[in-house]
């Protein structure tokens, strides 16, 4: 049950609202004016939350540096923070409310995305494989050469044995590749993880290679754990650059860096 004071307050508020006249925005649009009886009031309108996008890591740090309170006092942590994960870097002007922010997106590179397609084994004919290694992944000639020189043979001298690069195809036929020892068991492919300005450093990603003599094809499969390992390496390098950028602006003690997402 409401007490008398609460009821009186509700009644007074209702009476004020009934006599409140909205006079619209001020000329600069930063406040709204009201008339309550003979009294004029201006109620400030808070600015919209910042949601900027930076095109480099340095630009994100510069933005935070320019918006630090008391820039001449570099002692102790300030309200800002930086969060990073495998999809973006987020600079928060105030880590407490996490509203005003600047974002540096980290889209995956075309090369790394192509390797992720190999999480499920993919078969390639020789010509298609060479094309993919050279044009899609940009590998050097010495890595591509064993696949370019690959030659298949078919004989009627089946032994029943199955070895790498050689498999029985029936009672009397044997398919094989010439000199399978020159074909690697796996490839270490160095590619950029992200397609963002300043973030094109290359990291190794290992892919398993399996010749399929019967089909005259090569199967490629991303080695288990390679996706996360490559992302972790790229994130560690990014964290090192963030520390350097902050140190260069004497902000290392004022703006903490966290791994993860700050949420919305």
What is this structure, in a nutshell?
The protein has 264 residues and is an alpha+beta fold. Helices cover 28% and strands 29% of the residues.
Blueprint (SSEs and pairs):
Elements: H1 4-18, E1 20-25, E2 31-36, E3 39-44, E4 51-53, H2 57-66, E5 81-84, E6 88-92, E7 101-105, H3 110-116, E8 122-125, H4 126-136, H5 141-148, E9 152-155, E10 166-168, E11 174-177, E12 186-192, E13 202-212, E14 217-222, H6 226-248, E15 257-259
Parallel strand pairs: 4-7, 5-15
Antiparallel strand pairs: 1-2, 2-3, 5-6, 6-7, 8-14, 9-11, 10-11, 12-13, 13-14
Helix pairs in contact: 4-5
Written overview of the protein:
- The longest helix is centred in the last third of the chain and has 23 residues, at 226-248.
- This protein is 28% helix and 29% strand.
- A hairpin with a 2-residue loop joins strand 2 (31-36) and strand 3 (39-44).
- Strands 4-7-6-5-15 form a five-stranded mixed beta sheet, with helices on one face. The chain has a four-stranded antiparallel beta sheet with strand order 8-14-13-12. Strands 1-2-3 form a three-stranded antiparallel beta sheet.
- The chain starts with a helix and ends in a 5-residue tail after the last strand.
- The chain has helices at residues 4-18, 57-66, 110-116, 126-136, 141-148, 226-248, and strands spanning 20-25, 31-36, 39-44, 51-53, 81-84, 88-92, 101-105, 122-125, 152-155, 166-168, 174-177, 186-192, 202-212, 217-222, 257-259.
- Residues 158-162 and 168-175 have low confidence and may be disordered.
- By secondary structure, the protein is α+β, with helices and mostly antiparallel strands.
